[in-house]
Design a protein that fits this description.
Layout lengths: L2 H13 L2 H7 L4 H15 L4 E3 L3 E4 L1 H27 L5 E7 L8 H10 L3 E7 L2 H9 L5 E5 L6 E7 L2 E6 L12 H4 L5 E3 L4 H12 L8 E3 L2 H5 L9 E4 L3 H4 L5 E5 L8 E6 L7 H13 L1 H17 L1
Parallel strand pairs: 3-4, 3-5, 8-9
Antiparallel strand pairs: 1-2, 5-12, 6-12, 7-10, 7-11
Helix pairs in contact: 1-2, 1-3, 1-4, 2-3, 5-11
Length: 308
């Protein structure tokens, strides 16, 4: 059994298509199919359910796939540990990030790259469910996500704090604080209902006896922010977004009354114990980065500017 055969199997399970899996592995489709057939012969079990097209893995194949993920992760960990003993940490850190935490990701990735200049970072925007799957299948080294899964190794980074972004000539622009029910009466632009952040915000509106009816919904923070300049729309945002996007011209940050903190966002790693060298290095950086303090200080800056 060769590790390359396991790589082909992982690619096939991911792509669910022989031709796409072969292209991802830079081999011909007959070569990939033959390698997996040899793996079946060597293990004496059927791995792939075959018909006119790929139909999934057999129960035995699912077991082999789980071991393939584990063995390939161990190989990568060995390479990383050896590189760290030589000229410094190398390899690619695979980091999954929930979309609403992407604006704050550079608070970790920049100091990580400064400390390990020979390493690279690959960031993928994923849902929290996809992150859990990616960590379990060793497809990710670490992730920035909501901390609601006790099975994952975790390091809290910050708590989401929600504020109102509203035009400077709007009815709430001069308020020191605003209630969620007041914000619900404004022309709103919010993330779409499929987004975890939006569901949390809807719960906050409901707790104040209100329901938000945004005229515009977006599936990305960037798409939401694109509608804010111009003085027509208001939005409820996480304070972490200020790190990347700031406050658009002609708008002001107004704190929302309610719970002091929203859900926690943190850095999590997968089931391998200890974590991979790359994940461990990122955890070390995260413990020293002061993400919570940096974001809270930024929020105070924007609130103080608005108060003057």
């Amino acid at each position: 059994m060769q590790l390359r055969q396991l790589e082909y199997l992982v690619a096939l399970a991911r792509e669910r298509h022989f031709a796409r899996a072969a292209a991802a592995c830079y081999v011909s489709q007959p070569s990939l199919s033959a390698a997996i057939r040899r793996l079946e012969h060597e293990l004496h079990v059927p791995i792939v359910r075959r018909g006119r097209r790929y139909e999934g893995l057999t129960p035995e194949g699912e077991v082999v796939l789980a071991w393939a993920h584990r063995m390939l992760a161990e190989r990568d960990a060995l390479r990383q540990e050896l590189s760290a003993l030589g000229d410094g940490l190398t390899g690619t850190l695979r980091l999954g990030v929930v979309p609403t935490a992407l604006p704050a990701a550079s608070l970790l990735t920049t100091p990580f790259c400064d400390r390990h200049p020979r390493a690279r970072v690959s960031i993928e925007s994923l849902s929290s469910a996809d992150i859990t799957h990616g960590l379990a299948e060793f497809e990710l080294d670490a992730a920035m996500t909501y901390l609601d899964d006790d099975s994952l190794r975790r390091l809290p980074l910050y708590e989401e704090r929600y504020v109102l972004l509203t035009p400077t000539d709007g009815p709430l622009a001069t308020a020191a604080t605003a209630r969620w029910a007041q914000a619900a009466t404004l022309p709103l632009c919010l993330l779409g209902p499929r987004m975890r952040n939006r569901r949390i915000i809807d719960e906050c509106f409901a707790a104040d006896g209100a329901t938000a009816a945004p005229a515009i919904e977006s599936d990305s923070v960037a798409g939401l922010y694109a509608h804010l300049p111009g003085g027509r729309w208001s939005s409820v945002i996480s304070h972490a977004w200020l790190h990347m996007f700031g406050v658009p011209d002609g708008m002001r940050v107004v704190p929302l009354e309610g719970p002091a903190h929203g859900p926690r966002v943190g850095l999590v790693t997968g089931p391998d114990d200890p974590p991979s060298v790359l994940a461990g290095a990122l955890l070390t950086v995260a413990r020293e980065a002061g993400v919570r303090e940096a974001l809270d200080a930024l929020l105070r800056t924007y609130i103080d500017v608005g108060d003057h």
